[in-house]
Structures are given as structure tokens and as C-alpha cells.
Amino acid sequence: MKVRPLTFCLNFLCTLCTLILGLLVMLIEDRIYRLIKLLLYTAKEENTEVTATKLQKIFFLLEKEKGIQLGLDFKPWFFGPYSSKLQDYIDKLIESGEVDVEEEEVRDPLSGEIIGYKRNYVLKSELKPEEEEKEIEMFFREWVRKSRTEILNYVYKKYPEYAKYSMIRDKVLSRLQE
Fold it and tell me: Is the pTM of this model over 0.85?
């Protein structure tokens, strides 16, 4: 059986493209894992917390304001911009033991009932920032020092289209007008 040269070339090119695409996806995923760990390292250095909300908003700002496209597909959600992909990445780091989660009960101020948990992410693995990460590290340092409220105020004011489904939008926006 003879293989036509054109068919062989097309099959080879398709295989090569699939391999290259797979490598690009792996590189992007590795970069996202690295950036999450860099954020948590920076928080540890600054002796501050990174909650689930803070993580989501800082990565949202990384994409929007630094132009670093990570393909996280942020959508408007209950507390502003949210990426389920970013949550998947942090969950995998937790499963692998590189990140720990400290949970703190959140109680209703009137009834005292537990209404949820505040999740604080802590880097367990070692990390030494690379020289080419300095700009991103400084960006993380700037935002990780801010309170959750300051970050939400900024994001809701500058990107109102991402706050349209937020359960706390009115509360956040009313604070901005005071």
C-alpha cells in the first residue's frame, strides 16, 4: 500500500500541531500554578491573608490591568468577577499539598448561626521568585496589602459590568458614595 506524500505531510502536520498545542497548554498551566504560588509567597512575606475572594480579584486585575492573558475566563458572579478555572487550579494545588486552606467560620451577626466559611490560602511549598517575575511580584505586593473591602471597592467601581450579579454590590457601591 502506497501512502501519498500529501496525505503523509498533512497527517504529520496535524500531529505536530497537536503536540505543540499540548505543550502550550502545559506551559500556560505551569505559569498559572507558578503565579498562584507567587501571590501566596508574597502574602506570606507581607504577613497578610489571601482569601478566596482576594485571590479571584487579584488575578482578575492581573489580566485586566497588567494585560497578562492566562485564559481564566472571568465571569460576573455572586461576589464580582470569578473564574472557575482559577478555582480548579487552586484546588489542584491544595490536593497536591503545596497549598493549605485555613477555614474560619462566618456567623450571622443576629442569630449567631454559621452562614459560611472564610477560606485563607497558605503556601506550604518553597518558592524563590525569579528575576523576570519582579514586576508581577510588585503588582501582587501592592494588591495583597489591601483589604478585601478596598479591593472590592476598586473592582466594582472600575469594572461595574462584573458586579452585575453580585449579592453585595449595593453594599459595596453605597460605601463608595459615602
Answer: no
